[in-house]
Amino acid sequence: MLGPLAVHRNGRPVRLGPVQQQVVLAVLLLHGDRPLSVPAMIDAVWGENAPASAVNLVQRHVSGLRRVLEPDRAAHAATSRLAWTGSGYRLGVGDDVFDLARFEAAVRRARQARDAGDPKAAAGELRTALLLVRGPLCDGLSSPFLDAERERRAERVLGVLEDRIELDLAAGDAVAVVDELRRLVTEHPLRERWHELLMLALSRAGRRADALAAFQHARRLLRDELGVDPAAPLRQLHQSILAGETTGTEPPRTATAVPAQLPHALGDFVGREAELRQLDRLLDRDEAGVAAISGTAGVGKTTLAVTWAHRVRERFPEGQLYVNLRGFDPAGAPADPGKVIRGFLEALAVPPDRIGADPDAHAALYRSAVAGRRVLIVLDNALDADQVRPLLPGTPGCLVVVTSRNELLSLVALDGARPVHVDLMSPSQARDLIGRRLGRDRVHDEPAAVRQIIDACARLPLALSVVVARAAAHPQFPLSATAEELRRAQGSLDVFDAGDLVTNVRAVFACSYRALTAPAARLFRLLGLHPGPDISIAAAGGLAAVPAAAVRAQINELARAHLIAERAPGRFVLHDLLRAYAAELVAATESPDERRAAVRRSLDHYLHTAYAADRRLGEFRDDLIGLEPAVPGARTEQPADQQAALAWFAAEEPVLLASLRQAVHDGYDRHAWQLGWTLIPFLDRQGRAHDLAAAQELALAAAKRMTEPRGEAVTRVGLAVGYIRLGRYAEARQQLNIAYRTFENLGEHIGMGHARRSLAWVLDCEGEYHEALGYVQQALDHFRRGGHETGEARALNALGWFHSRLGEHEKALHYCRHALELQRRLGDRWDQADTLDSVGRAYFQLGRFDESADYYTEAIELYVEFGDRFDEGHALIALGDARAAAGDRVSAVAAWQRAAEVLEQLDAPAVAEARSRLLADRIGLLSQE
């Protein structure tokens, strides 16, 4: 790999296949024995330009590499080289046949020889390493990951070359390296260390005048190119040469202590490939780099930082410093940066008489002590940027890794830190963690229990570690017993306690909570009352009864503290354990009246905004609920147009369903059945029949409980819609008959009309078209008696539909045209789509296929406009049929393909119809061929 990528078998080169396949091989090799997930592979090979077929391409290239690397392996035999581990692909290559591994092994031997006081042997080992370098890493191949690695490896090679020359000088071989250094100075004119070594070599070779001339040459170069003077080491060497102090054979740098303060690295570290790659990119930077690792409490920030630091510590041979800044420590106050600096100075073996007692001078002395050295500094558990900033070195060569529960945005904005966000583990990573600590067999034998444990722990590494430690202490107990214990805890954090403050999830969360301002702390507590799964700024304002600007500031404070996460623009989420902690706090802090008031404001926010959005989508939909005014502070929203209303419903749908369940559970029955009513059109037109039926069943229970006959009847009609979509026709019929009788008792003709028209729909599904026609006529009469022109137009369209079903297509067109005229006069575009669909069907049955297609096309445009995915899919099938009948096969296939895509997204049974048409078309083409 140290040059063009090449693989040899038995001394002969192996043909590696296409260039992209070689890139995949190179990426795998550079990841060593670490599994590489498919998403990580795609990111490494293509970056932001990944094609839609990237997953298939990765699989194809992996298959190709297996054939190349193991040509004698049977087709379906297990591979010993390139294997899938469950969390990613891993390529097994022995260090003895891998030039990168041999390079690093030689460098390690050189370090051992140097530490043993044998510079000649150390230099020889580095020569062995450098002989392996044939050119740039994987020369000729390119990808985002490879390009970055190539730059990093080039810098690594230069660093080794620099070390070898230093060792030659230490061994007294100054004359031998002069010509080489002149070449290096020419190739890297702005690399001050080469100028420094050249001056040192010339001086030790007895060429003092040439050494001084080399300094003047370096100074001119730096001034001309960069407008700066040489750095302190070069200037100090110049002064030493003038004073005649550099003729000995001592090592070129004063021996200093090499601190190795990194804590123990976990042997069962899993996942975090993307975060590790982000940290790896810091190694490519020449300046002093800073990584700001942030994430919620217990998410594994320290583990990530320490693991990565151990992996790259050899890149920092002059020391690794570590300190726990105790920014969020349940057992102590945050560390004083001044005291931390003094500890670092002692670790760097700065003499006590130089340290002195003046704290103000310590920071400058610290920066001087690490200047020109390659030192890795890990600042763990930082409180904020102010605590970190005094500990940052000021010169290239050093790299700082900071971990904090705060985002440290100031450090990113002002100090150029690279942000690295650590999120909850993925389910596969959590499963891998459990497997590594408990054994793969236990995980394999009880997959359901493992899933339950992962869910109960919210995929939070600290919680998983506590629970897994308890399971490991009782290997004779099945994991199902652990899962059952977590289930019985019902969200209590008591089960996530391993016996000390550091491993007590509640105590760990409390450190973050105590650092909040009072308004943000109150909002966090109230979020424990929100049903989830996420919340918008407006909804949070309603929950807390605070203005938009204030709640935004509070949300931002929670987000910076990683007590809430912004999963999508403007939408924030707490993971389940933080939600449980917030629920504990709100129950202990707020009074029952305050809690009920907050829940009422939240429900009012969702009910009134859902009502407004529903009116935007269908202004001609009957208002059957009689909404009461929202309580003060509820912060309701008014979507600006149909698209905004659709977007609001799409974003809030899970929250609306959760709010409906909360309303039923907490006894807000009016909110429950009215919220259910607002959801009917959106859920129906999105093809969410199961959710629609479940929501209306809850709403019906609430309406019954409050003895609200009208609400009960309205809800039964909505429930029937869900049952019809699910094919539960007998139950739908029962609900509609009860609703009709209730409306009849109330004397509400409009409600009676809705019940009868929906009953006709049931009969349509059962093929009883004559009977259905009678119920539609009843519906028409009721709507006319109620003076309801919108309902009248719907009933006229239904009459046309059923006449077409009965083969009376001209009569059908008569009723549908009448319906269209009425709808257009009213401006009712919502219902026009259904009528246009009916006209398209009638024309198709009359053999007028082009006209049929035109009406279907117009209907589809309206369905798309109003977000009616369900009817859009069905109309697309019919449009394809009309195009096919008209002889336009290409347009027909396009319509069926769109229908299949739409209906597949909805998991609608009608997707089979679209696919069968596409299949029949392909079979027909094959037959013709």
UniProtKB/TrEMBL annotation:
Residue ranges of every copy of the OmpR/PhoB-type domain listed in the record: 1-93
Family annotation (Pfam families): AAA_16, BTAD, TPR_12, Trans_reg_C
Repeat region (TPR), residues: 793-826, 833-866
DNA-binding region: 1-93
Domain of life, source organism: Bacteria
One GO molecular-function entry: DNA binding
This protein's UniProt keywords: DNA-binding, TPR repeat, Transcription, Transcription regulation
Keyword Transcription in record: yes
InterPro entries documented for this protein: AAA_16 (IPR041664), AfsR-DnrI-RedD_regulator (IPR051677), BTAD (IPR005158), OmpR/PhoB-type_DNA-bd (IPR001867), P-loop_NTPase (IPR027417), Sig_transdc_resp-reg_C-effctor (IPR016032), TPR-like_helical_dom_sf (IPR011990), TPR_rpt (IPR019734)
GO BP field: phosphorelay signal transduction system; regulation of DNA-templated transcription
Assigned protein family: Belongs to the AfsR/DnrI/RedD regulatory family.
Protein name: DNA-binding SARP family transcriptional activator
Upper taxonomic lineage: Bacteria, Bacillati, Actinomycetota, Actinomycetes, Micromonosporales
